[in-house]
Amino acid sequence: QKEVEQNSGPLSVPEGAIASLNCTYSDRGSQSFFWYRQYSGKSPELIMFIYSNGDKEDGRFTAQLNKASQYVSLLIRDSQPSDSATYLCAVNPGTYKYIFGTGTRLKVLA
Amino acid sequence: GAVVSQHPSWVICKSGTSVKIECRSLDFQATTMFWYRQFPKQSLMLMATSNEGSKATYEQGVEKDKFLINHASLTLSTLTVTSAHPEDSSFYICSERGLGSGYTFGSGTRLTVV
Fold first, then answer.
1. Any residues with CB less than 8 A from the CB of B11 and at least 6 apart, and which?
2. A96 touches chain B (CB under 8 A)
3. pLDDT digits (tens, 9 = 90+) for B20-37
4. Which residue, among A4, A40, A2, has the nearest Cα to A21 in the 3D structure?
5. What is the pLDDT of residues A56-75, one digit of tens each?
6. Minimal Cα–Cα distance from A56 to chain B, Å?
7. Residues of B with CB below 8 A from A34's CB?
8. What is the DSSP letter of B86?
9. What is the SS3 assignment for B98?
10. Which of A42, A98, A101 sits opposite B103 (nearest CB)?
11. Which of A86-95, B9-18, B19-28 has the highest mean pLDDT?
């Protein structure tokens, strides 16, 4: 069973701090990795994707991938209350299907 | 990126009735659409893959006679929940694979069966 694991949280951080969200996956052959943000009652929206080992930065967001450790993370710098949401990690094991984690709920405290 | 229009955004129906959810690709001809279901505080679970002009592919454990999928054109896929029961109450989301990376999701449909 291919799995994607995330800590359900909630992860609480003060406004302005760095939020670190983590995800591990079981299929070593996975090729692409995605982070989605989902507000309560809404559908997910893509924040970032990463294919290669290392860091990828986009504004306040940085995705980090370590294929050897089967680990992908999302850092949110200068966290804002509007960042409060559930963050879903998704992994593409090389097929057309994505495998989603259960999500980490982030709370940014004003 | 791709834009997917899904409606209705929410629906309440009586037990035993059927509900149709529509998903339209507004700027991309989607030969494939994906239908997900999400229960509260759970992950997205792929229900089926909708292929234009052919039968949908259902995931294990999903009743194809209960969740009817039609993908009659490159821009429209529909999911019909037949003979709905309270346990079918969930958040249903369609998605398509856009021109770039990652899937684009519709806005979702909150189904409540009473």
1. B19, B21, B109, B110, B111, B112
2. yes
3. 999 998 876 767 889 999
4. A4
5. 999 999 999 999 999 999 99
6. 14
7. 101-102
8. G
9. coil
10. A98
11. B9-18
